[in-house]
Amino acid sequence: MNAPLRCPPPLGDEAYLALRRRVIFECGKWDPQCEDVQVLARFPIVITQQTWHDLAHAAEALDSEALDAEREILARPDLHAHLGLPRAIRRALSDARIADSPRCTRFDFHLTTDGWRISEANSDVPGGFIEGGAFPRLFSQIGKFGPPVADPAQALADAVLRRAGPRIALVHATAYTDDRQVMLHLARLFEQRGAEPVPLAPDRIRWNTNQPADALPFDSIVRFFPAEWLPNLPRRAQWQHFFDAGVPQTNPPTALLTQSKRFPLVWDRLATPMRRWRELLPETRDPRAINPKHEDWILKPALGRVGDGIGMRGVNTPREWRDIARAARRFPRWWAAQRRFQALAIETPDGPRFPCLGVFVIDGLAAGIYARMATRPLIDARAQDVPVLLNQPAHAHCTCGESHGRPAIAV
Amino acid sequence: MDDRQLLFELWTPPSARYAPWAKPVLFAQMATGAAPPDSQVSDLPVQPWADFLEGRTAVVLDLPGESSVSHALALVAHGLQPVPLFNGCAGPGACIDVESIMMGLRRGAAHLRHSVPADAPPAFMLDSNRTAGKPPPGSFDNRWVVFPQDFPSGRFLLAHGLARVLVVHQQACKPADDLKQVLAAWKKSGIEIFGVEEARKSPAPLPVTKPWPLRPFAALALLALGLRSNSAGGFGAKVPLPPEGGRSGGLA
User: Fold this and answer.
1) With 80 as the cut, is the pLDDT of residue B219 above it?
2) C or N terminus of chain A, fewer CB within 10 Å?
């Protein structure tokens, strides 16, 4: 795949501040600053239609394989113990049923010396709906650039309502403003479509276990509460019912089976060949099977998020690396070792930056890009959010004749 | 720009160095088109410790919400730039009162028309009640905590001539654990930390105990215990018990 990425000159102060204000007040981006980093970039990444085509094709193939693998692993409890999942989750998985649900996964693509590679898939509760949808849309309205590729939040709202009725539970940890802003953004989109979204905490759902599923007071669930934290809820929350909800759920907690960074460790025991994954995800091993002193391995917590706890020798501070390596040595079943790829920086108005393009796949179709970039080849909380825009008007159909997501966005 | 945005801009003038750190959460949740309050903040508090500031001190107002607002407004006269860091959501049945803070922010806007230099030191505004109590059943759990990422780094403060931080408390100067993490990071950068009760005259060095390190293996243990990372990468409070929906009713 060729991958031209271009960063045009940044917005001036006045235009940037106006944009920032709109993203905050019109789209609910309430965390625009992280320590000394202005989270919202002043310039976009401009890509070609061909690059979007390449990424979309790859992401859709990865998604298809992941869903096949998830079904297969779910039926193989003997594999669950290899994935670094808490015991309570493994018990719940043994009774899980995958409802026919709209699925939403984000695949994080990096530009490397070997072309595009992914570092991970966020298949449980991927984030970046505002930053990958509303932010690029508002940026493109400034007029100097083409449109965004798609809006994942809009695509998710459409997908949920295609599958079920209008009563939607938006499940999240209500005390977390960063999570709540996403749920309120989705709630607005559902309301615009005539639906009845209810943002609420996971223990507010009353599971009417003695009644048929259609007696539940909602038609579907959008969960923004990581599945591995469900066991921390009080017993009365009956959190196990998220595993057999009986209504569509985006995403069902069975997504943890492919969210785990140790997912590749069971591939050889699956019938699903995982061709695209093997091609795009660097080799992954149990931490006990590597020499951690070698710089060509990265250590990752099996269920880590937002770059937390990732160990890259020479990129982390020596103390961080020492602590991470020690943790992986003590609790190897909770960690994975991933062969390090040589990420490429791109030139930006702020200097060289390492980009990560998180491609959403919703209901099988590529549905937008949540891009971040960092000064080092590690995307964590201090990375900047960058809008991705096309260098030309989007076509309803790609050059391959297929439609990837919903590229024809009105701006 | 609607009135919420205008208000936000009054509190965070684009030219102000520390304006980017201001949290827009409460401003964004204000009703649009609501009539402006008919009263301003009437009695700004006396600040007997204000002489301590001397132009090279950042202030953290860790006071009950409305009090934090009025102290910040009073500090404008001393050349400080108020920086609202209130990060709790509003909602029916909220267990932490943010409505009074929102009203204070609206009322206080009139005081902000006096210009403060762009490079004015910041007065960070917190609500000391942000983690107060355990939410009763039926309430909307809108407690919140601060993280080091919510503030400028110590390196940034030092680079801009701020070598000390004064933490203002209502009573005994005992920072909550979340704020301790912030102060410890600053102290490690070489910033002096002082504390004062709001009615006292003389600030004193504030001993900042080293917080429990949230290094990876500890972080994993925290996850196992139910503590979680937020999207900014920090670690927050335990998943609230019992949390509630932000709207009345919820799902029965």
Assistant:
1) no
2) N
Contact B234/A at CB under 8 A = yes
Q: Which of residues 24-43 of B touch A (CB under 8 A)?
A: 24-25, 27-28
Which of chain A's residues have a Cβ under 8 Å away from the Cβ of B89?
174, 177, 180
* pLDDT tens digits, one per residue of A188-232: 999 999 999 998 888 888 786 655 545 568 899 999 999 998 998
Mutate to test the interface with A, among B83, B162, B215, B238 (most CBs of A within 10 A): B215
Per-residue buried b or exposed e for A178-210, using 16+ beta carbons within 10 Å of the residue's own CB: bbbbbbbbbbbbbeeeebebbbbbbbbbebeee
- B198 CA: distance to closest CA in chain A (Å): 27
Burial grade of B165 (CB within 10 A; 0-12, 13-18, 19 or more): buried
343-372 in chain A: CB under 8 A from chain B: none
Q: Of chain B residues 107-166, which have a CB less than 8 A from chain A?
A: 140-144, 148-149, 151-153, 155-156
DSSP state of A42: S
- Identity of residue A249: Q
pLDDT in tens, A110-163: 999 999 999 999 999 999 999 999 999 999 998 778 899 999 999 999 999 999
In the three-class reduction of DSSP (H, G, I as helix; E, B as strand; rest coil), residue A384 is classed as: strand
How far apart are alpha carbons B175 and B186 in whole angstroms? 14
List, as ranges, residues 206-225 from B with C-beta within 8 Å of A. Answer: 215-217, 219-220, 223-225
Distance, in angstroms, between A35 CA and closest chain B CA?
4
Give the rounded distance of the alpha carbon of B237 from its chain centre: 17
Query: In what helix (H) or strand (E) does residue B177 lie, and over which residues does it extend?
Result: helix B177-189
* For residue A251, cis peptide bond before it (omega within 30 degrees of 0): yes
Q: What's the rounded Cα separation, in Å, for the pair B52 and B60?
A: 14
Question: Least CB-CB distance to B247: which of A38, A199, A306?
Answer: A199
DSSP codes of every residue in B96-116: S--HHHHHHHHHHGGGGGS--
Please tell me the predicted confidence (pLDDT) of residue B216.
41
Nearest-angstrom CA–CA distance, A241 and A41: 41
Whether pLDDT at A15 is above 80: yes
Mean pLDDT of B199-209: 89
How many residues does the structure list for chain A?
411
The complex scores an ipTM of 0.83
DSSP assignment, residue B240? Answer: P
Q: In this predicted structure, what is the pLDDT of residue A101?
A: 94
More confident: B186 or A310:
B186
